[in-house]
Design goal:
Length: 162
Amino acid sequence: MATIPKAQKLDEIRKEALRLSGEKRSADQLMESITSLLNAEMLKYNWVGFYMLDETADPPVLVLGHYWGAMTPHTRIPLHQGICGAAASSGKTVVVDDVKKDPRYLACSLETKSEIVVPIFVHGKVAGELDIDSHFSAAFGPEDRELIECCAELVGKRLETS
């Protein structure tokens, strides 16, 4: 059985995410579909989830939304805490090749080795993020980052029109 090159697989997943975003779906349905797609198609994406910013909380927190993977104790993450809090606070993608070496990491699973967190922007402001954990070290290369940032952007655009 032949395997397709990673770049081709990522391109196919990006096209599927674009197709999903083009359907008449709510932002909530789109997030659910994207978590399912990424979890099912990417072997090294072992936990895929969205956290949305609740600015009405005092202090503001990231609240877990749709996800695929093991249960997590981190259903509410204050800004400035953990890798998720760092990405939301800075508005920048955070890639951690080895979570054991990053003091910001909030341990969810002993199996997690690397993580990527991509902010979601709505009208220029961080509204949430797409968080992916892997059981493999350095699982997220530049092509993965591009795909995940594309997915986060699609959700942000859908939230802007909701």
